[in-house]
Amino acid sequence: MNSLRKLGTKLSQVAALPFLSFLLAFFISGILIAVSDSRVLKLAGHPWQMIKMAGTVIGNAYLALFQGSIFDINLTHGHSFFQGFYPLSETIVTATPLILTGLSVALAFQSGLFNIGAQGQFVFGAIGASYIGFHYSLPPVLHLLISLAGGALLASIWGGFVGLLKAKTGAHEVIVTIMMNYIAGYFILWILKTKAFLRPGRIDPMAPEVGTNARLPHLAGADLRIHAGIFVALLAALFVWWLLTRTTMGFKFRSVGANASAAKTAGISIAYVTTATMALCGALAGLGGAVHVLGSEYAMTADIAGSFGFDAITVALLGRAKPVGTVFAALLFGALRTGGRTMQSNTETPLDIVLVIQALIVLFIAAPALVRYVFRIKNLKTSASITSKGWNG
Amino acid sequence: MSFELRGITKTFGSLVANDSIDLKVEAGEILAILGENGAGKSTLMNIAYGLLQADSGTILVDGKEISINEPSDALAAGIGMVHQHFMLIPVFTVAENIILGHERTGRAGTLKLEDARAAIKKVSEEFGFDVDPDAIVEELPVGVQQRVEIIKALIYNAKVLILDEPTAVLTPQETDDLLRIMKDLKAKGTAIIFITHKLREVKIAADRISIIRRGKVVGSAQPSASQEELASLMVGREVTLAPDKTAHTIGDVILSVKDIVIKDHTGRDIVSDISFDVCAGEVLAIAGVQGNGQTEVARALINLEDHIVGSMKLDGVEINGFSVHKSLDEGIAFIPESRELDGLISSFSIAENLVLDVHTQAPYAKGISLSPSQIRAEAEKRIIEFDIRTQSVSDPVSSLSGGNKQKVVLARELSRPVKLLIASQPTRGLDVGSIEFVHERILAERDAGRAVLLFSTELDEVMALADRIAVMYRGKILAIVNSDVTRDQLGLLMAGVVSAGAKSA
């Protein structure tokens, strides 16, 4: 009982800041939604009616956001009740690669590194998985596993190179990963136009679909896109948690991340930690790319990576660079993204509001003093150190 | 004029830093405030100087209550303070530093420095300070920089001067100079509050001594009291200041260092021509004023420095070029100079900090997997063996006091089989009780037949522990002498003077 209460206290301490930030972000975005709505603005002369209208508009927008991301009763008409969860399935499909790229950035934070390169690593994961997926023909399960592993491995080399460069020459990983994102972005444009990746008889930059044996199986029938990639992502989160808390390698990672100088004095090789961390970060983000291709896209295009690699930074920050936190943060972002589209089409609230919400959440998390001021809370547990680390290395 | 603090109380959260403290100092008097680190001395003085506000209590000047909300109020009331870390701008001249915050400008906004120059000269002559108003501060020795701070206070008519641990950064000679200056100021009617934990200086300089322990004034003493009595009052129990050093046999050479040169990244020599041997069962102290290359030599011995030329043989094995990990594995225990920066990971638990350098070894790890239960179990033993005061080994090490933090470092380094102990400023910033403990452990290592290399800037520590003493000055070893050297001879060597009296050993 006592330990349960302890856990509860700890949870509320850790989750308080993200939750309050979330609340504030929705509040401010609500105001933005209201003042950008023509129906509200028309009632400028009648304050009471204007407030009522604003309430309706905001309520509708957020209802649409919910309907677009979790459950929509309208979808069950003429279908099974289950179909109402179509939005949730979409949310998870979007969140799956985000969990993996988020973990990549979070792991780097734990080692005191700032991995901006999840985007490029994602691209190489997608390229590896796509090529093995469509080029070879292998038995079920084996084809899937090799495709996943191939993508992760290729991205791990791509990421590990950054670590090696930092270890050997001191080149800052932030600069290097940003530059390597550009290289990856143009590399995929080029490779999609090579013979190896063009579909027979076509000249548009799109790779052939991966073989059926290489695809991640659907979890809820063909109508819903949710696929087994979510298990890959959750397993990866479990792996990162295990690595950080239960292995000697993770101990080294955390030591260097928390105090590189003391770690070095204790005989821990910074070069090893930097290289190993970046290689693992690469593998995680690469797995994200592989899962995205093998689970929902099948055919790789030039913008396969979307903004999965960049949103990952926000996700990792929101998740406080912890595996569990990252999973929840990715699910939240997945929901905002899928729900945002419904919100735009149903209520004419622009999709950009979702970006505003995301940005505000991160802003408040990065500036806990602001949240503390608004809610008049003195002892709010913060982890600003995570956000400020990595730049000075 | 008299200066009085009455019933000053200050709390930080649940910590009571000052608990209704009463103090009074008269003109022409030196009041020493003696207390361990964390006893609340600095908090009290920061309140007196307006850097902190008391929760309750009053400050009186000449019997009249005044309110001090910021340093400018304190200055206006005639209270000056010289901080432990100087508040000077290194690239400015002495005169520029002195007018800082009180700038007077001519017509086109140009600075008027003449008045300041004249004032500095006047004060300098009055007290024999010998400070050039146009010297760049960073080019001055530390002792002179401190005089600049004192001049600054005097020029703005400080009648009460608070000196916060003023001797911590000084050489023994500079310390003696400062104590002389304090007596001169006193003779001219300045009231001085002298904060320190160094017993010898208190006995020389103070007229009265107030002892603070855990935020309370626990007593007062006369300077005639013995050092042991003062230390006991400070700690609250009996303490032995000079550890028992038993006669012992010196064994074979364990560490042999020959012609070491360490270069910085630009290729300049930081230290050069360093050669010495340390034998089993012997404490070799490397003495010297901070910043004469000791830090680099200590770090070099476990290969933490790059660009090391020369030979470092540990028990016959050349270790120059080894990784840090391999150097430690060869049998070196290393207590770094800064435990906060290099010795501990403050966000990690005590248990984790106890295995920082052995976390890959049994029983703490099996293959790649860590055994948290074993780590915790071993930590439980260590906190008993080394008397580390904590509620749980899972608490972050940052929750410990300085002394207990250092015990964690000691416990880690001395719990594996080593041939050589390198201790770099092992008692810096520690209280008397912890210093006693650390000294006992170091001597225990020596008596157990290990070679001990002690880097210390504290003369008392060097004299108490060393069998032989090497003095470093400007990156070189000036002399290696026996432990029967006198304090004065050692002080002179640390200032770079090779006197005829010091015989080499």
- What assembly state would you assign to the polypeptide chains in this entry? heterodimer
Percent helix range of chain A: over 70%
CATH superfamily of the largest domain in chain B: P-loop containing nucleotide triphosphate hydrolases
User: CATH topology of chain A, what is it called?
Assistant: ABC transporter involved in vitamin B12 uptake, BtuC
Helix content of chain B: 25-40%
Total number of domains of chain B: 3
Overall outline of chain B? globular
Structural account:
The complex is a heterodimer of chains A (393) and B (505). With 393 residues, chain A is mainly α. Chain A is 71% helix and 0% strand. The longest helix of chain A has 34 residues, at 2-35. Residues 387-393 of chain A have low confidence and may be disordered. Helices cover 31% and strands 26% of the residues of chain B. Chain B has 17 helices and 22 strands. Chain B has helices spanning 41-48, 71-76, 94-99, 114-127, 142-155, 172-187, 199-205, 227-235, 294-300, 324-329, 339-343, 350-353, 372-385, 402-413, 432-447, 459-465, 487-494; strands at residues 3-12, 15-25, 30-35, 56-61, 64-66, 79-82, 160-164, 191-196, 208-213, 216-221, 253-263, 269-279, 283-287, 308-314, 317-318, 332-335, 365-366, 369-370, 420-424, 451-456, 468-473, 476-482. In chain B, strand 21 (468-473) and strand 22 (476-482) form a beta hairpin. In chain B, helix 4 crosses helix 5 and helix 14 (402-413) packs parallel to helix 15 (432-447). The longest helix of chain B has 16 residues, at 172-187. The termini of chain B are far apart. Chains A and B meet through helix 9 and helix 10 of A and helix 10, helix 11 and strand 18 of B.
Write a compact overview of the structure shown.
The complex is a heterodimer of chains A (about 400) and B (about 500). By secondary structure, chain A is mainly α.
Strand-helix topology:
The complex is a heterodimer of chains A (393) and B (505).
Chain A: H1 2-35, H2 38-42, H3 47-69, H4 86-110, H5 118-135, H6 142-169, H7 173-191, H8 229-246, H9 248-258, H10 260-265, H11 270-297, H12 308-318, H13 323-347, H14 352-366, H15 368-375, H16 384-388
Helix pairs in contact in A: 1-3, 1-14, 3-13, 4-8, 4-11, 4-12, 4-13, 5-6, 5-7, 5-11, 5-12, 6-11, 8-9, 8-11, 8-13, 9-11, 12-13, 13-14
Chain B: E1 3-12, E2 15-25, E3 30-35, H1 41-48, E4 56-61, E5 64-66, H2 71-76, E6 79-82, H3 94-99, H4 114-127, H5 142-155, E7 160-164, H6 172-187, E8 191-196, H7 199-205, E9 208-213, E10 216-221, H8 227-235, E11 253-263, E12 269-279, E13 283-287, H9 294-300, E14 308-314, E15 317-318, H10 324-329, E16 332-335, H11 339-343, H12 350-353, E17 365-366, E18 369-370, H13 372-385, H14 402-413, E19 420-424, H15 432-447, E20 451-456, H16 459-465, E21 468-473, E22 476-482, H17 487-494
Parallel strand pairs in B: 3-8, 3-9, 6-7, 7-8, 13-20, 13-21, 16-19, 19-20
Antiparallel strand pairs in B: 1-2, 1-4, 4-5, 9-10, 11-12, 11-14, 14-15, 17-18, 21-22
Helix pairs in contact in B: 4-5, 14-15
